[in-house]
């Protein structure tokens, strides 16, 4: 068991969270995983997921189960809502803890101390701009009011398009016909949508990506491109900055939008866990 100080970094989003435990030198001692971690849409599940991931990292490192030993930085979906982040932090067992939006730790991991923009596109969509070490967030307001271009947004758009096709307002493409057939009825789609989380909607996004030249899929992807490009154009308006795409859909949109931002799209220096641990250790 390590006698020195232990640092925990957590990266949590709409589909799951990861934790890494490090010693004072930055050496990774163990990693763990947990379920979804959005402090706005389901703070109780987020807490359970964080504790599961943290405990898993401690177990993997053979450091026991005492979470009160840890200095922790958590990057969690929804933590840009200040009140929700503060309420969540008050429930944590760690010796010292800091709760940031998941894109903040993604920015620190992807850029280190450099200036740039991180577009985190996964279940949700949020952007971080770093200038002189200060991170400013944009977007990330959730599926009901935002998240344009995200997996959740595209999945929701697919079900919306299926209903429009049922009513005859748009063409019933093979993809939309398949969705209607599989769901059974328009009423079943409405019932699903009423209880669905962003992650539930996001699970339908691969259907769009796998649909080839299906007109409905292409419309949804084109609208996603436009929403992400609109955000990046605005964030670049104060001067050109390198752009790093992260998240499960990051590589997809880096490729789709590469022609629009020639020479500006870069690979990440590290991952969100790297950023969370760097913040925990006071390095960035």
UniProtKB/TrEMBL annotation:
GO terms for molecular function: glucosamine kinase activity. It is an enzyme of class 2 (transferase). It holds the Pfam family BcrAD_BadFG. Keywords: Kinase, Transferase. Residues 8-249 form the ATPase BadF/BadG/BcrA/BcrD type domain. Its EC number is 2.7.1.8. InterPro entries: ATPase_BadF, ATPase_NBD, Euk-type_GlcNAc_Kinase. PANTHER family: N-ACETYL-D-GLUCOSAMINE KINASE (PTHR43190). This is Glucosamine kinase. It comes from Amaricoccus macauensis.
